Amino acid sequence: MVEPVLVWRRLVGAQIRSQFQYRLSFTIDLIGNFLISFIDFLAVLVIFHNVTQLGTWRVREVAFLYAFSSISFALTDLLIGHLDQFPQKIRDGTFDILLVRPRSTLFQVIGSDFQLRRLGKATQGAIVLAYVVGALDIPWDAGRVAMLIVMVPSAIVIFGSVWVVGSCLAFWTTDGGEFTNAFTYGGNFMSQYPVDILSTWLRRFLAYVVPLAFVCYFPALYILGKPDPLGLPRAVDFLSPLVAVGAAAVASVAWRFAVRHYRSAGG
Amino acid sequence: MRLDWEIAKRGWRRYAAYPWATAAGVFTNTIFGFIQAYILLAVYRHRSDVGGYDTADTLTYVWLAQALIMTVYMFGWQELALRIRDGSIATDLARPLDPQRYWLAYDLGRAPYHFIFRGLIPFAIGAVVFRLHYPSAGDAFAFVLSVTLAVVVSLGFRFLYNSSAFWFIDVRGVMMVSLTVSLFLSGMVMPLAFFPHWLGVVARALPFASIMQTPIDIWLGKHHGASLAGVIALQLLWALVFLALGRLTLRAGRGKLVIQGG
């Protein structure tokens, strides 16, 4: 278990050192990532310029969802966002190389293109979170602190699993990588807002089947002390870590199944 | 003209060659359309009018924006920047064909493909699920004209920020800033009607509204007579301004060009 982590650290460390060689480029990239992630937050502010509540949610509560979703998504993107470029390996057949090396293929794909500049997006979410937590006046008790600690890792695992499952499609449709975007970028977009405002069928599909409601919505209900507008029992708020484990298991099975269907393009 | 037509056909074919990419894009645009539609519908639980938009206007806006997102190519076009970076631009400049004319013709061939295959299906799905606003024949005609101008404004802008590659080897930062500004101020992220009044006024005066907000407003029948002529003229003006600036940058860049490694 320890050994892959060490290998990953060496791989990523080497990539970070190389990115620091082009310091100006790196800085501009970091700022660019920071700026572009503001767009989604501006959208939230524009909505609340027109209404004081969205369903039962006030602006600070939605900002809380927004901040958590964008931090978790940005960190997922930092760790495995380069899965978006991985269909190229299938298209040109270079995936063959990964198959003959003595590490799991998923591990190799994930360790192959770490871009530290993506940290810019997480910074923006962290700033919003710091402001909102200060403004919301949450009665922090042991339960809430525990939830705060487990929710980001759970969210990252859920987002990451969705990303991996989506990427598996590339083994069948080499140029259909954008399917994944509906669930990754679309999932992030959805998680920034309360799921109870979605229509029933879309909520069932995106929030429960693709378990995106467990990324932020349920943990946030608990931390904010809000009753669920949909009337689900409070116990559901604590399921995120379990859902994360389940999602990771599904992703792992899906990836292995997909790799067995790989037909080389002869790279 | 014959030459432009041939280039345009290649622009169409380049994208028609990847049907799965088109299907995947349609699916993603549709999911985004649904999420945004329900978020904005929640706004209308509390009020019946936002900046002159009723529910049908806003829902139509959401689906038209998803339908047009690829047509006007909002997201990261960097083909010119890549050619400048790897030095292929030197070959382009040696050809008896102006690169800006080439990309304009290519883009005007690409845009109808994306309009038909990336735009119509998400819009049709939105139209089945929600009650949308449909234009009069006159508005529909003006809409098509306005979308065409929107493509030219967009290409003019993309050409301009891509040309910065003559000065910066890595244009990613410039691209991200350009993208941030144009996505937000075009009305792609949120209809400008939802903006605070002053910001809406500023945004409408800037060129980016011509890429998204203007054609959609025309579809929604928000412009007639002098006002319609005004917004179309403004689109035309921004198209010419961007193309002229692109020419100047290209000329300046030509003198600056250093090919990396022959």
Could you name the key traits of this structure?
heterodimer; A: 267 residues; mainly alpha; two-stranded antiparallel sheet; 14 helices; 2 strands; B: 262 residues; globular
Task: Provide structural commentary.
The complex is a heterodimer of chains A (267) and B (262). Chain A is an all-alpha fold and 267 residues long. Chain A has a two-stranded antiparallel ribbon. In chain A, a hairpin with a 2-residue loop joins strand 1 and strand 2. The mean pLDDT of chain A is 89. With 262 residues, chain B is an all-alpha fold. In chain B, helix 2 crosses helix 6, helix 3 packs across helix 6 and helix 7 runs parallel beside helix 11. The two termini of chain B are 33 Å apart. The interface between A and B is large, with 43 and 42 residues.
Total number of strands of chain B: 0
Class inferred from helices and paired strands of chain B: mainly alpha
What is the distance, rounded to the nearest whole angstrom, between the alpha carbons of the first and last residues of chain B? Answer: 33 Å
Most extensive chain contact? Answer: A-B, 43 and 42 residues
Radius of gyration of chain A, in angstroms, nearest whole number: 19 Å
Largest sheet of chain A: 2 strands, antiparallel
Helix content of chain A: 55-70%
Mean pLDDT of chain B: 92
Q: Number of DSSP helices of chain B?
A: 11
DSSP summary: helix tally of chain A: 14
Structural domains of chain A: how many:
1
The amount of helix of chain B comes to over 70%
Low-pLDDT runs of chain A: none
Termini separation of chain A (Å)?
Answer: 31 Å
Order of helices and strands of chain A: HHHEEHHHHHHHHHHH
What percentage of amino acids of chain B are in beta strands? under 5%
